[in-house]
Design brief:
With about 130 residues, the protein is mostly beta strands. Helix content is about 0%, strand content about 50%.
């Protein structure tokens, strides 16, 4: 079992920044990749970014490239999502997720490949 707790969401003006955190506990050594997803009202949950737990390789959704950065601190079992130049369309509940088992190089972008999820943190971008 892996437990995930997100934090760092809030209300920010367009053009502003936020850093989300995802603290992992439990059988974290079994994690291979940590992903960030988001879900806006009335929409499907969509991929934002992923980082491999061992090597730190990353992949981003087109909407996140150049503005968001995913990183990790293995000593703290924590993954971060730095979000800059935020836009109103970034408003959503943001979730972190863990994929356990399998290759240490694989970076899944489908939500169905992740077995553990946090409770989510709300990000609202509005003036």
């Amino acid at each position: 079992q892996v437990q995930l707790v997100e934090s760092g969401g809030g209300l920010v003006q367009p053009g502003g920044s936020l850093r989300l955190s995802c603290a992992a506990s439990g059988r974290t050594f079994s994690s291979r990749a940590m992903g960030w997803f988001r879900q806006a009202p009335g929409k499907e949950r969509e991929f934002v970014a992923v980082i491999t737990w061992s090597g730190g390789s990353t992949t981003y959704a087109d909407s996140a490239k150049g503005r968001f950065t995913v990183s990790k601190d293995k000593a703290k079992n924590t993954v971060y999502l730095q979000m800059n130049s935020l836009k109103p369309e970034d408003t959503a509940v943001y979730y972190c997720a863990a994929k356990t088992g399998g290759s240490t190089y694989y970076m899944p972008t489908s939500r169905y490949e992740y077995g553990y999820w946090g409770q989510g943190t709300q990000v609202t971008v509005s003036s």
